[in-house]
């Protein structure tokens, strides 16, 4: 039953995570600017996590070492990748965004190879190659890389998984002692909010939530809450099942994003996209580390 519970949690977490891609598509449909949306995500995350920390009586460490750490995580884990994701989401189907997100483990492996924290492995490199083929299939034989073309926005969509890959390596090697995931997210949300607020106001990217709420405003709230929930859920799953088992959530996120886009948004994909999805999932399987996960 423990294994079934863990599998159920994996499926639920991945499906919820994938649904945020569909919600993001709805949020950007009205033309809201990326920084304005990120501001509300950071604000709601900071408030919620600070409330949780207060209940746990866990003060936020704020030495210069910790502030620098939170700042880097805020930049490479939220501000930069989310900005590019919101821009790309306005021009790409949820299915293509989901396939792009699946490249996170591949970029993480490339970064690890560059900094020499991982050794070269032919099978895992084959997985990266299959992921590259998947992206080329998504772009198609007549890829348009002009500023309004799908190719251009698909490249923008890949900026986010690249930075998530960098973030994973940074967290693995630079997290200060006695800092857990929720503390990291709380600190990064607060520092990210401090950075994001003046830039949002200066660039005219403010999203006004004081007017009558429509489905878009509710979607902004829900997406912000799901961001905290999925991050927390993933960390809980890692602690329960091990990092290798929990990493399989990437498959569910990708598949749920594709199929929810079809069910909710009415998206339709041609044969090349389905072939790309197959290559991407196979590449994910090859890129995953092979250590055995232990389910407690």
What does this entry look like structurally?
This protein is an all-alpha fold. It has twelve helices and no strands. Helix 5 (104-114) crosses helix 7 (150-174).
In short:
This protein is mainly α.
Distinctive features:
disordered C terminus; 296 residues; 76% helix; mainly alpha; 12 helices; single chain; globular
Question: What characterizes the major β-sheet?
Answer: none
What characteristic shape results from the CA principal axes? globular
Category by helix and strand content: mainly alpha
- Give start-end ranges of low-pLDDT stretches: 292-296
Measured distance between first and last alpha carbons: 11 Å
On the 0 to 100 scale, the average pLDDT is 87
Give the strand tally.
0
What's the alpha carbon Rg, rounded to whole Å? 19 Å
Q: SSE order in H/E notation? A: HHHHHHHHHHHH
Ordered list of secondary-structure elements with their pairings:
Blueprint: H1 2-28, H2 34-55, H3 64-89, H4 94-101, H5 104-114, H6 122-139, H7 150-174, H8 181-202, H9 215-241, H10 243-246, H11 249-265, H12 271-287
Helix pairs in contact: 1-9, 1-11, 2-8, 2-9, 3-7, 3-8, 4-7, 4-11, 5-6, 5-7, 6-12
């Amino acid at each position: 039953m423990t294994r079934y519970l863990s599998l159920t949690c994996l499926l639920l977490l991945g499906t919820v995570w994938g649904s945020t891609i569909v919600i993001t598509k709805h949020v950007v449909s009205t033309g809201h600017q990326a920084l304005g949306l990120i501001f509300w995500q950071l604000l709601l995350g900071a408030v919620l996590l600070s409330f949780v920390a207060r209940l746990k009586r866990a003060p936020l460490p704020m030495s210069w070492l910790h502030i620098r750490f939170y700042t880097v995580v805020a930049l490479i884990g939220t501000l930069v990748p989310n900005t590019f994701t919101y821009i790309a989401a306005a021009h790409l189907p949820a299915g293509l965004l989901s396939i792009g997100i699946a490249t996170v483990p591949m970029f993480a492996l490339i970064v690890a190879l560059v900094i020499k924290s991982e050794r070269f492995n032919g099978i895992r490199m084959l997985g990266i190659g299959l992921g590259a083929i998947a992206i080329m299939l998504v772009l198609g034989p007549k890829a348009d890389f002009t500023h309004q073309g799908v190719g251009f926005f698909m490249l923008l969509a890949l900026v986010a998984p690249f930075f998530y890959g960098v973030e994973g390596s940074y967290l693995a090697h630079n997290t200060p002692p006695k800092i857990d995931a929720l503390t990291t997210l709380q600190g990064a949300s607060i520092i990210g909010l401090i950075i994001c607020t003046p830039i949002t106001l200066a660039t005219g990217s403010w999203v006004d939530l004081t007017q009558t709420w429509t489905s878009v405003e509710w979607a902004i709230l829900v997406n912000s809450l799901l961001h905290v929930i999925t991050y927390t859920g993933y960390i809980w799953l890692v602690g329960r099942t091990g990092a290798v088992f929990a990493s399989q959530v990437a498959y569910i996120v990708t598949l749920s994003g594709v199929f929810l886009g079809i069910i909710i948004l009415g998206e339709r994909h041609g044969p090349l996209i389905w072939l790309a999805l197959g290559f991407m999932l196979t590449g994910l399987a090859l890129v995953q580390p092979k250590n055995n996960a232990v389910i407690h």
